[in-house]
Amino acid sequence: MSHKITDKCKGCDDCAEICPVRAITGEMKEMHEIDPNRCIDCGACCNVCEYESIRDQFDRPTKYTPKENWKKPVIDAKLCNGCSLCVEDCPAYALEITPPEQPGDVHHSSVLARPDDCNACGMCERRCPVGAISMK
Predict the structure, then answer these.
(1) Dist CA 70 CA 92 (whole Å)
(2) Are 91 and 20 spatial neighbours (Cβ–Cβ below 8 Å)?
(3) What is the pLDDT of residues 30-79, one digit of tens each?
(4) Tens digits of per-residue pLDDT, 65-98?
(5) Separation between Cα atoms, residue 107 and residue 120, nearest integer Å
(6) pTM of the model as a whole
(7) Residue 45, Cα to own-chain centre: how many angstroms?
(8) Which residues contact 21 (CB under 8 A, 6 or more apart)?
(9) Are strands 73-75 and 133-135 parallel, antiparallel or unpaired?
(10) What are phi and psi of 7, to 5 degrees?
């Protein structure tokens, strides 16, 4: 079950702009819709909805969260193997792989290079095959 938009929606378009999988559609100043086949239940839309018109996958109301309180990915560099799956899947282009510390160094890890661009969707955490990323 995916997130749902209720009739409290004012059509501001903030949720559609932040959705990492473009599951939200609608015209400005009209009620928007979430495509349940595309929604990944990340909750990014809930963070930006000032009208609190979105219900989560369990049909619970969600709350607007100011950007400074959004969860961000925390990467354990010791666990990270530098595979770059999180970097490739980040819809906000907020992650990067670190350059080698020394010439010939083969260990790389992911880093949150642009924290202001992160939309708190958690795709990086879900995509990490070694569990090196947690949203905090």
Answers:
(1) 14
(2) yes
(3) 999 999 999 999 999 999 999 999 999 999 999 999 999 999 999 999 99
(4) 999 999 999 999 999 999 999 999 999 999 999 9
(5) 26
(6) 0.83
(7) 9
(8) 38, 39, 40, 91
(9) antiparallel
(10) -70, 0
